[in-house]
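Re: the 756-residue chain
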Amino acid sequence: MKKFLIIFLSTFSIITVISAYIVIKRQGVESSYWKQFDTANISFDKFGIPTISATDWISATEAQGFVLAAERLWQMDLMRRKAYGRLAELFGTAASEYDQSKQKEDWIGTAALAAEKLPPMQKKHCQAYAKGVNKFIDQFPNRWGIEYLLLRTHPEPWSCSDTISILMLMSEQLSSKAGYELKESIWRSHLSPSWQKFLFPREHPWNKPLFGQASGKPLPLPKKSEWINQGNFKIEQHASNIVEDTDVIGSNSWAWKDDNKIFLANDPHLGASVPALWYALRIKISKAKWVVGASLPGLPGITLGMNQHIAWAFTNSGEDVDDYLEETVNTKGQYLRIENGAQVWRTPIEKEVIIKIRNTKSKTITTLFSDIGPIFKDSSTGKWYSRRWLAIKGDKLKLPIIELNQASNWQEFNTAIDTMTTPSQNVLFVNRKGDIGYRLSGTEIKRTESGLLPKSAINNNWTFPSPSHRLRKFFPAQEKQKTILATANQRIWVDTTGHHFADDAREKRIMEVLNSKSNITANDIQDLHNDTHSQYHKILLSWILQNNTYNNKVSSSRLSRWKNWDGDAKSDSKTFTEILWMENHLANLLIAQIREQFLPPEQKDTRYWCLLRRAWMLRILNLDDGMHIFGFEDQEVATWLVKNLLTTPNIRPHYFTNRWQAQHPFVGRIPIIGDLFRVGEYPQYGFRNLVKVENPKYGASMRLLWDLQNPEKSTWIFPVGQSGHIGSKHYKDFQESWHFDKTFPVFSDSKNWDFL
C-alpha cells in the first residue's frame, strides 16, 4: 500500500507539473496566427518586438490593441483595476483599503466622462484600440494569461474608459503631490518663517532655469536667535527614518547637435515592475510613413519615439496640478462658500459605493464631493479638505499621442502637444535637420496664490490660459555650430505660484559631460545614460575629511581612497557606500534636532520630505561652523560620523542593498507557482540624484537613443522583456543586457524602411 501511494503521488506530481507546463506554454497567441490577422501584417523580431504594418492608422491602432492584449492583458487588467479601485475583487481584504481611496474619488466616473468628451479622432482611435483588445479576449479563451487560471477568473471587455484609466494612473505617478504638500504644511505650522524658508527652499544653488532667472542669492539662514541651543547626538538613534526618500522625480532627456551628428536621448524613471511598464513597438503605414518607440500597455500609439521626420522625449515637469484646499465645515457637515459677499453653507453630494471583496461580503462606503472635488477629513491634521486635481477632471483628460506620432514639423508637433493636459511634461523636439525645440505640455494653471501648500477653499479658483498663449516653449535653439539641451526634472521656469522640481544635480552633470567634449559619439551617449558620478557626495566627503578629528583612527588605505575619490559610485563602490551611510545619518541627526525642538508629541511621527533638501545642506557645508545652526560644532559632527562608521560592522555594499527587487505580484504571494514568475535580482550602482537613477523598485524604465542623422543606428533597451507570459522566452530576456548596459538596434531590418 505504501509503495502504491508513493507511485501514485509521484505520478500525480509529474502529471501536475506537465499539465502546468503545457498550460503556461499555451498562453497568448501561436506564432502562426499573426499572418492571418485581418487589419494588419504583424511580425516579431528575435526579441519579441513587433512591427505592425497597416494601410492606415486606425487599422494599426486596432492591431496594436490586439498585440498588447496578447502579450500584456493581465498587466493592463491589473492597471485598470488599480485605477478603478477593484483590486479586492481579486486579492481580498488586503486590497480593500486601497480600493476605497480610489472609489472615494470616483475614478470610474471620471474615466467614463473623459472617454465621452474625447475629440472625435482621439475617440475613434481609443475605440479601435479597445476593439483590438476585445478581439483577443473573445478569440483566445483561457489563453489570456496564467494569472487568470490561478485566480479562477476571466478578463472583462476593454473599453475606451479603461484606456483613460491608464492615463490617470500615469498622472498619479507624475503629478499627485498634494499628500506631500500636506506633510510639509504640518512641519511648517510649527516652524518660524525663517526656519520654513530654510528647510523648505524654493531654489537650489545649481538652478539655471530655461525661463526666467533664479535669484542667485544664497539661501537665507534661520534667525540666529532661533538656532538650536544645544544639539543632542542621542536623539538620532530614534530618528533613523525621519527623512523620507524623494524618489518620486527622476527622468533624463538631452539633445545634442554638431556639424554631422544629431542625437536625442531619453530614460524616463518610474516605478519598476514585472512585466516592465513600457512595450517596444514599430508601426509602419508605408516605407516612408512610420513611427517607432515605446508604448504604454492600454494606450494607443507610441508615447516616446521617433517617426520619419522628428523625435521627441519627455521628462516630468513638476507642474503643480494637485491641491488640498482646507474647508470650513459646520456641525451639519456642510462646507462654507462666499457668494456676493455673503456666507453660504453647501451640503456635499453623497454617493454610496460598493467595494466587492473576494471570499468575503462586500463593503458599502459613502463618498463625499464638494463643488471642488472629493472632500475628506484628514486624520493627521483633523481638518477637512477638498481635493482639486487635474487628473480627476474628466473634461481635461485627452489622448493626443496618435496626432503626435504623425507630426512632421514643429507646428504639427505643437498642435498635438497642446491637447496633452496631464501629466505635464518637459518635451524635447528634434527634427532631421537638427533643429531642437523645447515646450511644456499641460495646462499652465494660473492661481492668485501658490498651491504648493494647502490653502482655504473659499474663493480659491484655477484659471487656464488658452494653448496659443502658453509661453514656455522655444524653437529652434541655436548656439553657434553646436546645440545642447537637457531636462532632468530641474527647475525649468521661475514663477510666483511654484512647481515641484528636483535639484539640478543630474542636469548639471549631463551638461558638464556634453560640454566637455567636442565630438560626441553614440557610445558617449550610452555612457552618459549610465553615469554614476555625484558632485554632491564628493563635496560632502571633502567636508568630512576637512573637519573630522578622527583621521588618525582611519586606516591609511581608506583615507587614501577617500581623498582620491572622484565621485563615481561604480568605480569606487566602497567609498560611495560609506558616504551614503554618513549622509543618511547626518540628515536624520539634523532633522531630529528640529523635530525635537519644534514639533509637538502628537506630530513627531511626521516624516520630513523635501525635494530640495540638499540646497540647505550645501549651504551649511559652505559655511564656517555651519553646524552651529543645529546646535553642533562642525568638527564634532564630522568626527561623530566617521567614528560611527568605523564602529559599525558589516555595512553592506550599496550595489548589493540596491539590487533590483521588482517582481511580478505573484512572487512571494502564491506558493511554488509564484516563483515561476521570479526574475533575477541584479546589483545596481545608481542612486536617486545621479544621472543613472536606480533604487530597488524605482529607476530608469527604458533607455532610448535616437540618431536623427542615421535613424537606422538608433538603439533601445528595456528592463525585463516584452512578454507578460512566463512561458515565453521574451518574459525576461532583456534583463541581463539591461543591467550590464547593453543596447540593441531599433531596426532589425533597416532596408525595409525609408529614412528620407
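DSSP finds 21 helices and 26 strands in the chain.
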